[in-house]
Design a protein that fits this description.
Strand order of the largest sheet: 4-12-11-10-7-5-6
Strand content: 15-25%
Largest sheet: 7 strands, mixed
Order of helices and strands: EEEHHHEHEHHEHEEEHEEEHHHEEHEEEH
CATH class of the largest domain: Alpha Beta
Shape: globular
Number of domains: 2
Bound molecules: pyridoxal-5'-phosphate
Number of helices: 13
Structural class: alpha/beta
Mean pLDDT: 98
Number of strands: 17
CATH superfamily of the largest domain: Type I PLP-dependent aspartate aminotransferase-like (Major domain)
CATH topology of the largest domain: Aspartate Aminotransferase, domain 2
Length: 388
């Protein structure tokens, strides 16, 4: 009997090593990893530049607390903010914490502006923001909420991509809107560019803050540093995590000077947030990601993979009924039970990641090369041919 809390359905496979886009099990089996630890290993496993940065920092300083200036912190903050809408960033250790930080900033902005009654946040069906009480209260997944009452007050959930539903939900107590530009756990559902633009207009018209949760779709995943940059809409707050640490626990909440002005010493914090190990890793990830051509590579690989998946859907409609997503955040809608197909693909040494709505996420490392895309498509084709 395992001593581990049974909150995950784990397979029996023990992964002991990772290298680039491949994972290796203790029995020597090699897997092509198109799950990336649920969209985390943006640069693949054990990227040499990131490993070197972590090794070097691990021999100098691990932790000293936020009582002091932290090596790498101001550099990482200015590089990240210079590459997007933001002026300020708070570093933490996970996606859920980044969302929590953003929710606090959102409410406190209105409090400091003399409008504490503006404290409700519009969120979306199918949304996922993490597992803390605030995050499940904000999220659109009833199973994640069940049994945890009383939940946090102040969230009004509406249908995704439905601007009329958002308009109807706005009231005198509305403080802002929280949305994933592409829902990840919810099944790779893209918010349309028009919808995001509509949300920005509503926020501007009603004095609300727009909060994008890019924990999953950010950090290069869609072919831009942040997915929202492709729709030409800037938020007031943006959470990110996953790819930013490439597997090291690191999250970030970005915002503008206007919102950041509401946050003073004592209003928020994290013992481990912005620790030197995380900053060394984060800076090393940015070294690679911000190189010219990186995001174009993601778009190219994404287009190649999506075209291949669409061809498979056309060839095997009895197995795949649709393909969705953009960049390297893709989803397959199988015509067969999704988990059975995920398991079959795994038996054929291709790792993918199930999501809500019977969707299979295809989220390889962003460093994937054409030969890896072809290898994955060949495994998928062979699996579709075989059937379940
Ligand atoms: N927000 C989004 C969009 C996510 O996809 C996730 C995790 O999947 C989270 C927040 C929570 O991140 P974490 O599990 O690191 O707390």
């Amino acid at each position: 009997m395992s001593a581990v809390l049974p909150v995950y359905r784990r397979s029996d496979i023990t992964i002991v090593r990772g290298e680039g886009v491949y994972l290796f099990a203790d029995n020597g089996t090699r897997y092509l990893d198109f799950a990336s630890g649920i969209a985390v290993n943006a640069l693949g496993h054990c990227h040499p530049h990131v490993v070197a940065a972590l090794k070097e920092q691990s021999e100098k300083l691990w932790h000293c607390s936020n009582m002091y200036q932290m090596p790498g912190l101001s550099g990482m903050a200015s590089r990240l903010t210079a590459a997007c809408f933001a002026d300020k960033v708070f570093f933490c250790n996970s996606g859920g914490e980044a969302v929590e930080a953003g929710l606090k900033m959102l409410r406190r902005f209105h409090y400091v502006s003399g409008q504490p009654q503006k404290n409700r946040i519009i969120t979306f069906e199918g949304g996922f923001h993490g597992r803390t009480l605030a995050c499940i209260s904000a999220g659109g997944n009833a199973i994640a909420r069940e049994g945890f009452a009383p939940l946090l007050e102040g969230f009004d959930r509406v249908a995704f991509n439905d601007i009329e539903a958002v308009k109807t939900a706005i009231g005198h107590a509305t403080a802002g809107i929280l949305i994933e530009p592409i829902q990840g756990e919810g099944g790779v559902n893209e918010a349309s560019h028009d919808f995001l633009r509509g949300l920005r207009e509503l926020c501007d018209a009603h004095g609300l803050l727009l909060f994008f949760d890019e924990v999953q779709c950010g950090m290069g995943r869609t072919g831009a540093l942040f997915a929202h940059q492709q729709s030409g809409v800037s938020p007031d707050i943006c959470s990110t995590a996953k790819g930013i640490g490439n597997g090291f626990p690191l999250g970030a909440c970005l915002t503008t000077d206007r919102v950041a002005a509401a946050m003073k010493p004592g209003t928020h914090g994290s013992t481990y947030g912005s620790n030197p190990l995380a900053m060394a890793v984060g800076n090393a990830v940015l070294d690679v990601m911000l190189q010219p051509g990186f995001f174009e590579h993601v778009s190219r690989m994404g287009a190649m993979l999506k075209a291949g998946l669409e061809a498979l859907a056309a060839e095997f409609p009895q197995m795949i009924s649709g393909v969705r997503g953009r960049g390297l955040m893709l989803g397959l809608k199988p015509a067969v039970p999704a988990m059975a197909l995920v398991e079959k693909l795994r038996a054929n040494q291709l790792l993918t990641s199930p999501a809500e709505g019977g969707v299979i996420r295809i989220v390889p490392p962003l460093t994937v090369q054409p030969e890896h895309v072809q290898e994955a498509l060949a495994i998928l084709r062979h699996t579709c041919k075989e059937g379940l």
